[in-house]
Predict the 3D structure of the following.
Amino acid sequence: MRKSQLLLLLLLSLVLASCEEKVIDPDDYKGNLLGYVYDFNTDEPLVNCNVTLKPTVGSQRTLSSGQFYFLNILEGSYNVTVEKIGYKTYEGNVIITREERTTVSIVLKKEVTEEEK
C-alpha cells in the first residue's frame, strides 16, 4: 500500500509539474484603425471631422490631411460615425483584426440647404 501511495504521489507531482500556466495578454488581441475623410465633390481632405468608434472606444478629430487613427483597439466589429457641420453624417462598420492595421477611406457629401434647392 505504501508503494502505491508513493507511486501515485510521484505521478501526481509529474502531472502538476508539466502543467504550464498560460496567461492571456489582451494586447495580443488588439489592432489599429487608420482612416481618411474626404469631400465627395472635391476629393479634398476634410479637417476637424468628429470620428466616433462604438462600442465606445472614443472619438478623434481629423487632422489637416483628413487623417484619424485609433490605436490598440480590441479586435472585433465597430460602428464608425463621422460628423462635420455642413455635411451629411456617415455611419458604417469596420472590423478590427488583431495585430493588424485596418485602413478606411470615408467620403462625406455636403448637406443641401433650403436655399440651394
